[in-house]
Structures are given as structure tokens and as C-alpha cells.
Amino acid sequence: MFKNKTLLISGGTGSFGNKMLRYFINNTNIKEVRVFSRDEEKQDRMRNEIKDERIKYYIGDVRNYKSVYDALYGVDFVFHAAALKQVPSCEFYPIEAVETNILGSNNMIDACIKNKVKNLVMLSTDKAVYPINAMGMTKAIMEKLMISKSRNIIDENITLCATRYGNVMASRGSVIPLFIKQCKENKPITITDPNMTRFLMSLEESVELVLFAFNNAKNGDIFVQKAPACTIMDLALAIKEIFNTKNDIKIIGTRHGEKTYETLINKEDMIKTIDMGNFFRIPADTRDLNYDKYFIEGNINTASKEEYNSDNTKRLNKDEVKEKLLNLDYVKNEILLTV
Fold this sequence. Notes:
By secondary structure, the chain is α/β, with parallel strands linked by helices. The protein is about 40% helix and about 20% strand. Helix 1 packs across helix 8, helix 5 (about 95-115) runs parallel beside helix 6 and helix 9 packs across helix 11 (about 320-325). The protein starts with 5 loop residues before the first strand and ends with a helix.
């Protein structure tokens, strides 16, 4: 499938991009992987860490249509991971989130269509469902853009889809590196709300989700991977046990734009969601605006479906969280550094 093909990863120097790049270099006979990002320092670091002539680096910004368009010449597949994803910073600078997550994503879609890219997989988030913060709202609009454009594609050789997932454990800016740092520095572990729940997904699982979407998507689809969740308190306690520390736990209150629990699929979409084993597929609503021609008499079943969220999914206890953490390369490396 990937032989003699070219892949571009936007935001390719981030946690997901790094893991996906290594997957393709180590497991496929792909012709070329293009890393598209705006941070030349991170690109230089990656260039020195991963030496492979199939990797090409492109400096650019998704906000700049021409830089996106030029980088996509000759590309077969795109994984769009470039985003502003920190909830508090997007709350303080929402227009920046709009520029990157909405307008930048629109640039990516249009440039992919113009360059006749075969597959575009866009990375979204659970915060796009029932959004209350700027980051989630901009990602929700990104999803809507993808679905809208997919309805109007004349060239049937391109597939637009998205993946939606919760917290990727130990990714940049996530809470696990912070908790570990606080443990090592013998500082209080700062948690927002002990009862707050979050989905738990490893970087490897995020790669699995994107590849599943790539292989199974129809235009406008959104894919979700089934994932367990835990409370923030159990996560903090698990990390304390792993590093054998006696740090105090300090409750600091919720940050700007945070929810008590996150939702991956809302109640309305669950009605049409297709269970595919370890994954859910949410097909696009392909109706046009002439709603009367779709009307069928029957019972209203909206209320019969429950949303899929971090409060009603499988809940891991402290020991189960600890086991999952100990499988992460990041945590293993941090343990070695403490010995």
C-alpha cells in the first residue's frame, strides 16, 4: 500500500508526528515522508535523531496557503496533526486558535484537493464534542469543514476523514510529564479536580487509530478508538507509587476551559455510529438541505442512545493505571534516569 508512496505529516515534529514517522520508517517501504512544521529547531533535532534519506523536512505554516500547497506537490497521503492544542493558551488567545485550527486546516484541505492527494486524515479531539473552550470549538469547526468539503468533492479519488481521541499519555504538554517532574523535584503534585476523568491513550494507540481511519474511511467519516479512563487523582497516585515518592497532592481548581469529563461521541451521533470492534465509525450526514425528501415516519430514538464519555467508559483503578503507565517508553526512560 505504501510502496513508492509519499506521505506528509503536518506538525510532524510533535509527539504524534515523531511516533508516526518512526512507524513508517521502521515498518513500511514508503518512498518518502515529509515533515511539515514551522519550528526549525525541532526539525534539526529530529534530523539528528532519526537518520534516514527518505525523510524530507519542510519549513512552513498551515496558516500560509502557499507554503502548504508547495509542500504537497507529489504527495499521496497526508496526516494533519498541526494544531494549537493547549486549552488555557487558546482561551487567552482564541484568534490564534482560529488561525491555526480552522483557517490553517481549511488551507490543508484545499491544498490537498488541488494537489490530488489521495487520503487526508485530520486529527481532532474529544474537546470538539460539546465544546466549552476555544480549542474544542476550533477543532469542532475543523471537523465541520472536513465534512462540508467531503460532500462537494467531484474527484472521487480523494478521501477526507478525521480521527477524534482523548488525552495522549505523555505527549508534549500533557499532565503526565508534569506530575513526574513534580515528583522528582519533591514538589506538591498539582491536580485540578480529584474526580475529573480523562481518556487514556498511548502514542502507539493514536497511531493505530490514524492507520485504521486511513484504511477504512469513506468521505466525511470520523473515527474514535475505544479507550479506558481514570480520575486525575488515581493518575497522580499511580505516578507517586511508580517513583516511590511521598509528595503532597495539592488541589488547585480547574483551569480555564476545562470540563469535569470529556466526550468522544455525543448522544446525537451515537444514533448513527457504527461499532467496528475496537473502534467507532461516525459516518457523515450526507443529506442536502431538502429535508422533506428524507422524512420517514417512525419513533424518535434520540433519547435511547447514551453519549460515549470518560465518565461512562471503562474506569481504570490506580493499579491498572500504574500498569498502563509502566508500558510507556517515556515513563520507562524517566525511571532509568532516577536510578
